Amino acid sequence: MKTAINLASQPFRRDRPMMVASWALGSVMVGLLGMLVWLIYAERTESAGTRAEIARLQQELAQLAKQQAAVDASLRRPENAQVLERSLFLNAVLYRKGISWTRLFEDLEKTVPYNVRLIAIRPWIDGRNQVKLEMTVGAEQTEPLLKLLIALEKSKLFGETAVTSRQPPSQNEPLFRYKLQVNYAQQL
């Protein structure tokens, strides 16, 4: 049997590939460290510009709020109360006049089924300046009215629909009548 015996005090080892790989890995890590430092610096510079822009916009907003407060204080003085009241009234009238009846009927024409009759319609504007419609509709059967409700709910121009009252047919009125309230997305 042969036995390998090494009589040297320090046996021969192959360290060169390990040293080259360690040196290459170290240089790659130093390069990545440099890139991360550069990215941090660039981000800090960019965020400093953004913070400066935000501070400028907040200062401008505070100045505008101060001007608005001065105008409001001027309008709330007793001698200007009549002008403020008239201004609010005229704004309300202009908002109501802003509803286009032509566009309203065009949009309803696209949505209302052919066998549903539009008996009455009254548009109004709520406190959030959204147009709401109060409609009275009629049909000989209830199915077309249900189709109308579904069509109004699915429409992009109309939205949430609420039935406020229902009337069955009578001797004088042969139609089922529904009174509805619906949101309308016409831009003023």
Give a short synopsis of this structure:
It contains 4 helices and 4 strands, in the order H-H-H-E-E-H-E-E. With 188 residues, the chain is an alpha+beta fold. Strand 3 and strand 4 form a beta hairpin.
Q: What labels would you give this structure?
A:
Gyrase A, domain 2, four-stranded antiparallel β-sheet, 4 helices, alpha+beta, 4 strands, elongated, 20% strand, 188 residues
Describe it.
The protein has two domains: 17-76; 99-184, Gyrase A, domain 2 (2-Layer Sandwich), CATH 3.30.1360. 54% of the residues lie in helices and 20% in strands. It is built from four helices and four strands, in the order αααββαββ. A hairpin with a 5-residue loop joins strand 1 (117-125) and strand 2 (131-139). By secondary structure, the chain is α+β, with helices and mostly antiparallel strands. The chain has helices at residues 16-75, 81-97, 101-111, 142-154; strands spanning 117-125, 131-139, 158-167, 176-184.
The arrangement of helices and strands along the chain is: HHHEEHEE
Give me the count of strands.
4
Q: How many helices does DSSP assign?
A: 4
| Model regions low in confidence, pLDDT < 50 over at least 5 residues | none
Count of individual domains: 2
Percentage of β-strand residues = 15-25%
CATH class category label of the largest domain: Alpha Beta
Strand order of the largest sheet: 1-2-4-3
Helix residue percentage:
40-55%
Q: What structural class should be given to the helix and strand makeup?
A: alpha+beta
Cα radius of gyration in angstroms = 38 Å
What's the name of the CATH homologous superfamily of the largest domain?
A: General secretion pathway protein M, EpsM
Net shape: elongated
Mean pLDDT: 86
